[in-house]
Write a structure and sequence with these properties.
single chain; 506 residues; alpha/beta; Rossmann fold; 2 domains; six-stranded mixed sheet; globular
């Protein structure tokens, strides 16, 4: 296969960080080339260079053997390169067609010819088995469908090289499988794909070739046939990594969280949490399993004060907190790792230092009357950056400049670095590499063993099975069953996730 994209000696420096250090990378026609590495390894930086978002400080980019210079994404698009970002670049109040034509408007006379665009969108999506409605508003679409819009948008611009940056981070298992089908259909049509991910099983399932980065450098290249999952993890992190969770039996004590007959409506006024009752005891992890969209999000938002309830009770350490403010719930000893880190977990315009004290800045040792002790906040930031291995140029770097995984580390560091009674962890390892996952899992187990009650919500069934002491399965807003971890298997939990409460007779 011919090489369609080549990076030679790419160097990119940011203040205090050498993100790409003489990086070589190539992509062959019709292949899926996986780029793997820890958070902050330089993967996204390299791809942003190839897409024209960053100008390299050194090196050369070639497309189909021809050296090119790119100063913007428009240059990349003109050379047939499209990119689907981890955080989608869509305007929610626009339709699918409007988002796809944005910047490449089809004009008839003085008016936009949306029909031409809509017809082309239908044609492209039908060819790929995606069946997009060009007239649907983006804010009404699921995350998986929004991603398809991004892919069609790139193909509408005649992309022959597609960069997918952490495309599975927010997808359900079924949506991941659908995406892989789409990717293989695209490569069969001659499209070449760079696939950035942290998930080793995905790498081994979908890759034709694998390139591993660490510390801004390429440290190895291989294929799925040549390497095991464990060896791939070791190459990525630079040390031996445990892919399983080692924990002692739980020692549950008093009930910390008690939810009774809880009812929560979604944004459309539909019942999302339907008469849910559960308890979480000190010293145990209750895992919530379920396909995304079955009420888990609304449940967590209600428990953390981010959504109002329409019925039922929530008691935290014996106190009623249904419809209490997030600050009140936090002050009672609850910590929250949110599902959407950028919307609910961080202030992107603030530095890392500020984000690490968002829920404690008004308390000692950071508060001195009406004045914040920024020296103490800076000291705290330095400690947390080192402790949680947050890859940043420094505590004053805007958190928006960090990779998604390192943004997640900021939240985890903030929430786990204060005395807590309850930890509500929703997708706590989303976007994290295996080394970081190992560390976060260890921190969650540590808090459990210290007597913290943990409510874990994750779409990663392996994560739920490994960490939980009991597993509650949500389906269409209800808790179908609570299963002791010792009795839980992928099969019986998977059936419950599909709404099957008992096997049908043969």
């Amino acid at each position: 296969m011919s090489i369609v994209l080549e990076a030679q000696g790419i160097r990119k420096q940011f203040p205090g960080v050498l993100a790409n250090d003489d990086v070589n990378f190539d992509l062959k026609k019709g292949e899926i080339h996986v780029l793997l590495g820890e958070n902050g390894a330089g993967k996204s930086t390299l791809m942003n260079v190839l897409y024209g978002l960053y100008k390299p400080d050194g090196g050369e980019i070639r497309v189909n053997g021809q050296a090119i210079s790119m100063s913007s994404p428009r240059d990349a698009i003109e050379h047939g390169i499209g990119m689907v970002h981890q955080h989608f670049m869509l305007i929610p109040v626009f339709t699918v067609a409007e988002n796809i034509m944005l910047g490449m408007e089809s004009v008839r006379g003085l008016a936009l010819d949306e029909k031409v665009v809509a017809d082309r969108v239908r044609e492209l999506s039908r060819e790929l088995g995606m069946e997009l409605d060009p007239n649907a508003y983006v804010h009404d679409l699921s995350v998986g469908v929004q991603q398809r819009v991004e892919i069609v948008k790139a193909l509408y611009r005649k992309a022959e090289i597609l960069i997918l940056d952490e495309p599975t981070a927010v997808l359900t298992p079924q949506e991941v499988e659908d995406l892989f089908t789409i990717m293989h259909d695209l490569t069969n049509r001659g499209v070449s794909i760079v696939f950035i991910t942290h998930k080793l099983k995905e790498v081994l399932e979908v890759a034709d070739r694998i390139t591993v980065m660490r510390g801004g450098k390429v440290v190895g290249s291989t294929t799925p046939a040549e390497i095991s999952e464990a060896d791939l993890a070791n190459l990525m992190v630079g040390r031996e990594v445990s892919l399983t969770v080692d924990k002692a039996a739980a020692q549950p004590k008093e009930t910390v969280l008690e939810v009774s007959n809880l009812r929560v409506l979604d944004n459309l006024g539909t019942v999302a949490v339907d008469d849910v009752s559960l308890t979480v005891q000190a010293g145990e992890i209750l895992g919530i399993a379920g396909v995304q969209g079955n009420g888990q999000t609304e449940l967590v938002r209600a428990l953390t004060g981010l959504a109002r309830t329409s019925g039922g009770s929530i008691r935290l350490d014996g106190q009623e907190v249904a419809n209490a403010s997030p600050r009140r719930i936090t002050e009672l000893g609850s910590a929250h790792i949110p599902e959407d880190r950028q919307k609910d977990g961080l202030v992107l315009a603030f530095p890392v230092m500020d984000n690490l004290v968002l829920n404690t800045y008004y308390l000692p040792p950071y508060s001195q009357g009406l004045v914040v002790n920024w020296d103490r906040a800076l000291e705290n930031a330095d400690q947390r950056i080192e402790q949680f291995d947050i890859r940043t140029s420094g505590p004053m770097a805007h958190v928006s400049t960090l990779s998604g995984g390192n943004q997640q580390k900021v939240i985890v560091a903030r929430e786990l670095s204060r005395p807590i009674k309850l930890l509500i962890a929703s997708q706590p390892t989303r976007g994290l590499d295996v080394g970081s996952i190992e560390y976060i899992h260890g921190q969650i187990i540590k808090r459990r063993d210290e007597g913290v009650a943990v409510l874990l919500v994750s779409t990663e069934l392996d994560e739920v099975l490994q960490l939980s002491d009991r597993i509650a399965v949500m389906y269409r807003g209800k808790i179908l069953a609570v299963v002791p971890a010792a009795e839980a298997t992928k099969e019986n939990i998977g059936l419950l996730m599909a709404g099957i409460t008992e096997k049908k007779p043969a």
